[in-house]
Design goal:
The protein is an alpha+beta fold. It folds into four domains: 182 residues, Tetratricopeptide repeat domain (Serine Threonine Protein Phosphatase 5, Tetratricopeptide repeat, Alpha Horseshoe), CATH 1.25.40.10; 295 residues, TolB, C-terminal domain (Neuraminidase, 6 Propeller), CATH 2.120.10; 90 residues, Immunoglobulin-like; 115 residues, 2-Layer Sandwich (60s Ribosomal Protein L30, Chain: A), CATH 3.30.1330. Helices cover 24% and strands 30% of the residues. Strands 6, 7, 8, 9 and 10 form a five-stranded antiparallel sheet that branches. The longest helix is centred in the first third of the chain and has 26 residues.
Amino acid sequence: MIASIRFLLFSFFVLFSFDVVSQNLNLDKFDKNIFDDKKDFRNTKKKLENADNIFYQAISSELLFVHREDLFLLALKDYLDVSSRFNDSSSDLCLRIAFSFLFTNNKQMSEFFLNKAYDLNKNQPPEYFFVLARNKQLNMYFDSAIDNYNIFRSKVSADELQRFRSLIFKYIDECESGKKLVKNHAKAWVDNVEDVNTEGNEINPCITADGENMFFSFQSDFISDSLICLDCDYDIMSASINSRKWTNIKSLSNFNTSNNDEVISNISYDGQRLLFFKDVSENNTDIFQSKLRGNIWSEPVLKMSKNINTVYNETFSCYTPGDRTIYYLIDVNKHKDITFSAAKDIDEFSWRLGQTVSNLINTKFNEGSVFVSQDGKKMYFSSEGHDSMGGYDIFISYLDENNKWSRPVNLGYPVNTPYDDLFFSSTASGKYAFISSNRKDSLCKGNLDIYKVTFFGEPKNMFNSFEDQLISSLEDPVKEQYVPKQVSVSNNNLTVFKGKIFDAVTNEPVEALIQIYNNKTGELISRFNSNSSTGKFLLSLPSGFNYGISVELDDYLFYSENFNLPQESEFNIVEKNIKMMKIKKGSKITLKNVFFDFDKHSIKPESYPELDRLSDLLLEFVNIKVELSGHTDNIGSEKYNKRLSQKRSDEVKKYLIDKGVDKGQVKSKGYGSDRPIDSNDSEEGRSKNRRTEFEILDN
């Protein structure tokens, strides 16, 4: 859509090659009282000439697919000022204003001035039909848009038609795509999020995995009685959901100062880390990271690696599961592509050199935003290329068995429109997502607004044709055609584990280290802390793995949890408050990641990380004495159950001694089914009763 301006180089010499005052605007036709004196007349003429020069620069940039909304807005400022003096009585000037608005976030204003131009003069130049076609396309009158593009083609010279042939046909192709996408209506609702939107721009809504908190960038200096905003400043905002309303909308004060203009890129799935970008020099933006410490975000000084931030502009970015890879946009020679970089170590002390993603994703047009789903299997990005129906459309690509991103699929209407639709961010379930769009609707407050997308059911196959992006701080023309395989965009196979961690005695929240392991391989997958002020934590666990989760804190017994999530596991939310026990006599924990084969006492290898944590604890606190107890359900004879539980506790003791623990520290005991913690009348209860426990006898 933005690229439509390419034809305007021709327009500049035909329609807009003017001495504005003497040719296009005959000031003698107007009341002389409009001008105070000759000086006022000369100043008005100079203002128009200046606006025309800026307008021409904007056109030249757009010819290279470099979007210069700022230049169009500068031109509009003077055009609108002069037009208001003439009471919008100049057809040429109204047409010029209509052109300019098409390439801003306030596109809907173009139609008003286009109609005004026609009312003033029915005999319009060829360029009128181009602007008319663009407006028809924006309003999804695709056949009428194509007709008017063809009228424009018929009215310009053969040389100029050949010069802009590929551009015109791209727009016609967008209209053809639009007809198909609207016909194959995506199974989704799109609603304006009135609670957070203003008359300015709201961009890049970032949602936490549980859908309870949103972060976004807000145009803080927009003037409500003005149609345009020059050199706009953005603030990073947060909001929380309450009774289906977004409330507690506030600024992240650490970021938002009069000297800085940070724009949010992404929030980590747990809401504890935030990516943003800002200017580091006049012509360079870099990506930064901030971490939540209690209720305070760290100062925005955590600049990402030089392997990510280069001499080019790095802007919108996103985390992937585990936060060890980020995808981001890089602007090389005024062309935006999606790139990614992976951390070399789990502590992210160093990052690998950024790599451009597949050409199946990046196009010769601009990509606008990127988001990777919490299960790591889907990438949503916005692009002006592929089979866009106009402007930026949002696409989905799937990670295949070879860890390659598949050919993208347009999410379709109503998620996408002929306007700009960007900044997709979804909850962990995948059922809800949020986007920014400057689309025209009855609730639109102007410019870019935030919209909520609700997916329902399986999407239809869509025909694609295309041419060569916690919580705790919130208190309360060669074309290729194909038919993609049908896959769901609404279901993420993962489990969200969330809750609070607190001292078992005082009930005060604590900041504890949370580590996630792959029990099959023993690999440490992720490591992060609960929030120090609230104790809150939130993590997403993609299906297909057996996870061991440990919670550790100095002078406390560790806590463990196990999630065995088969590949076919559906979305689920588990919420739990975790009590941390001080290392003192009587403290007891269940070792939830110690496993034995059925009816056997040999320890399975996936138990080793858990037992290693236990041995480290005993080696650090050499004065404590503990009991390792084995427990069973009531299936089978009590004699057999006690013998099996004794053998299992003995095996755990042997493992610890082999790791260097003094045998005098450890006592092993098998209790069989004598000490159930749940009912034996159900399999769920019996599974809880089959356990290994660790209790401090003396310290």
